[in-house]
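Tutorial handout. Part one gives the primary structure; part two gives the three-dimensional structure as tokens.
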Amino acid sequence: MSTDDRAAFVAGLRELTEFLEAHPDLPLPRPDLSFSVREGDDADERAEVDRIAEILGAEPEETADGGHYTVARSFGPVTYEAVAITSACMARYRALMTYGDAVEPERAAS
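Part two.
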């Protein structure tokens, strides 16, 4: 992300905060910001999560099956999370999705 893109993102968050404060009747969105690490191989992506963990002052965690490596930090009810998904886990997901159109649910009678 370029410096300009980063500044625009942060400015947008500030605008959203001001808008939400000015409109207390507006429902709040899910307060999670998730960053997917998608550059390099599995080791590179894991190293990036470790780097982000150091900045956040948090400990990274690995899912039980080893497919996701994450770190998160909450700021009140808002959570910033970084996640790296292993290539093996992504391959399993892509294989599963090939069955996505195999079954069509029955449509309700009109």
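Part three, for discussion. Residues 7 and 33 are 16 Å apart (CA to CA). The helical segments are 3-22, 42-56, 87-97.
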